[in-house]
Amino acid sequence: VVAFVLDRSWREDVAERVLVQANHAFDASTYELWVPLVRGGCLVLLRPGDVSVAERGQLIAEHEVTNVHATAGLFRVLAEEAPEIFAGVREVSTGGDLVSASAIRTLVEEHPGLVVRTTYGPTETTAFTTQISYTTGDTVPASTPIGYPMDNSRAYVLDEFLRLLPPGVVGELYVAGAGLARGYAGRSGLTAERFVACPFGGRMYRTG
């Protein structure tokens, strides 16, 4: 968690006032809670239960929220139905599924200077493993990539013999780094199957 919180992707000005809307049992809460707190920022808490788009926007405006993290599905809905609620927000981060390229374009065009950061990472690697950001003027590809490994994280596309594959060749994604879990509690067989020795040192997680 410490390595994740101190990643250079998280700018100090972005973490000033972060909207907390993830359940604490959801790994995205690692970002929403610890990144701002460790960096001297504030948490803006969304009330429990169903929250309308209008209410969410009012909270963002009233508390001058600087960063919002939303799952890919929620991000698409907010960007398409109410892009105006992100006025004043410095960065929006999203992930957990395929991120809508059109939603990214809508936000960066509507709010010049806003950064949209897409993230990828299974729970087994502590929230996010890779990221890529877009802002006004950037080209957003039709199929958004998962981006580049974050600090203290590594990502490899390997063949069935765990050999590194060149760009453009289909293989299996493995991830490694400081955030890698030890395994699954009480499930030694599954742990041995998914957490394997890394040919480049240490252990890695087989994403499947």
TrEMBL record:
<feature type="domain" description="AMP-dependent synthetase/ligase">
    <location>
        <begin position="9"/>
        <end position="184"/>
    </location>
</feature>
<dbReference type="InterPro" id="IPR000873">
    <property type="entry name" value="AMP-dep_synth/lig_dom"/>
</dbReference>
<dbReference type="GO" id="GO:0044550">
    <property type="term" value="P:secondary metabolite biosynthetic process"/>
</dbReference>
<dbReference type="GO" id="GO:0005737">
    <property type="term" value="C:cytoplasm"/>
</dbReference>
<protein>
    <submittedName>
        <fullName>NRPS A domain protein</fullName>
    </submittedName>
</protein>
<dbReference type="Pfam" id="PF00501">
    <property type="entry name" value="AMP-binding"/>
</dbReference>
<dbReference type="GO" id="GO:0031177">
    <property type="term" value="F:phosphopantetheine binding"/>
</dbReference>
<dbReference type="GO" id="GO:0043041">
    <property type="term" value="P:amino acid activation for nonribosomal peptide biosynthetic process"/>
</dbReference>
